[in-house]
Specification:
By secondary structure, this protein is an alpha/beta fold. The protein contains eleven helices and eight strands. It is 43% helix and 15% strand. The structure holds 2-phosphoglycolic acid.
């Protein structure tokens, strides 16, 4: 059985005070909960402070993006090494908002994925189709393309830490959720591509999360699908009560 992972993607939300208030409220709500892994992915500037606030808890930290170079003249960029050094275990890569607003492509996702693996960060690689692609019946082709390019030049031996998040773009922040069956079908496609790229053993162990309008009231139905290994939660992760309810689906 793959252990489920519930990750919060805070996107561009919260000041230091708001992050502290979240942690103070959230920690007691999940203190007894050790069934699933929990990862918080706040904006970069909050990470060191949150590392302190979370010490002694089981809650892990992740970044929302990285640049693929180690260091250098790349104004505004953050490297995998830097995230690792401030205590992150995970990093989100290739989120659809990065693809839409910041020029992320399948090839840059691959560079970032390799940079994350090189320092021991667990990458959460986001893939997913837009509405037109779903309506045109090309979802499987899109997912296969996104995954196969993301996975390029990574050996089966090095691929174990990879986590994929299936995030249909039409479900992100829209209140529309993929049905558990639609999500499970996409997860099977992603796992089949992982098997092609890395072999059956790596594919069978790979965590594939679902993301897109996960809320307390739909989390149980989604997480009960054996194919769904966890959730990447945006809007509903900003409130400690609603995120705790999702964690405890
Ligand atoms: P949402 O965002 O839960 O607000 O739809 C999910 C995501 O973008 O990761």
């Amino acid at each position: 059985m793959r252990k489920k992972l519930i990750a919060a993607n805070w996107k561009m939300h919260k000041t230091p005070e708001q992050a502290q208030a979240f942690i103070s409220a959230f920690l007691p709500l999940v203190a007894e909960h050790n069934r699933d892994e929990i990862v918080l992915c706040p904006p970069f500037v909050l990470i060191p402070q949150m590392g302190w606030a979370l010490r002694g808890s089981r809650i892990l930290l992740g970044g929302q993006d990285i640049f693929w170079e180690k260091e250098g003249a790349y104004t505004g960029a953050i490297s995998a090494q830097m995230l690792h050094a401030v205590g992150c275990s995970h990093v989100i890569i290739g989120h659809s908002e990065r693809r839409q607003y910041f020029g992320e492509t399948d090839s840059t996702v691959n560079l970032k994925l390799r940079a994350a693996l090189a320092v021991g960060l667990k990458p959460i690689v986001c893939v997913g189709e837009v509405l037109q692609e779903r309506e045109a019946g090309v979802t499987e082709d899109i997912l296969r393309r996104q995954c196969s390019i993301a996975f390029r030049e990574i050996s089966a031996g090095g691929a174990h830490p990879i986590i994929v998040a299936y995030e249909p773009v039409w479900a992100i922040g829209t209140g529309k959720t993929a049905t558990p069956e639609v999500a499970a079908e996409a997860h099977r496609v992603i796992r089949a591509q992982a098997a092609e790229s890395f072999g059956d053993d790596v594919a069978a162990k790979m965590k594939i999360l679902y993301g897109g309008s996960v809320k307390p009231d739909n989390a149980t139905a989604l997480m009960s699908q054996p194919e769904i290994d966890g959730a990447l939660v945006g809007g509903a992760s900003l409130d400690p009560k609603s995120f705790a309810a999702i964690v405890k689906w």
